[in-house]
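Bug #77: duplicate submission created two jobs. Keeping one. Sequence:
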Amino acid sequence: MTDESAEVQTDTDFTLTEIVFPSLVNHYGTLHGGYALQWMDKAAWICATRYARKTIVTIASDRVEFTRPVPQGAIVMLKAHVARVGRTSLTVSVEMHAEEPLTGDRFLATRGQFVMVALDDNGRPTPAKR
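Kept job's structure:
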């Protein structure tokens, strides 16, 4: 049995959904930037791991742009995509979109690049391509 509403994903794409609970907001009542970065890194890690099917670690985050604050109660969709594959590294682009659950209004809140490295069993960089 298949779920026809499930989003089709390839090994280069991954989507993660979260919700902004009260414990995740700052003093302005919007998503704390640290949680946004944590979710973005998680989406990048899952995307890179599914692509390489190897142990993956984050070595850098580049050009993270917070374009709009995300209010408490919003649904957050993180869309990760393998943008570049080097010998041992992968660059994963992540966009974080927010949705107001009662109206369905959506907007781009944050975007960034995450550089991931594939590791072998000894913790040394290994080719990222399968």
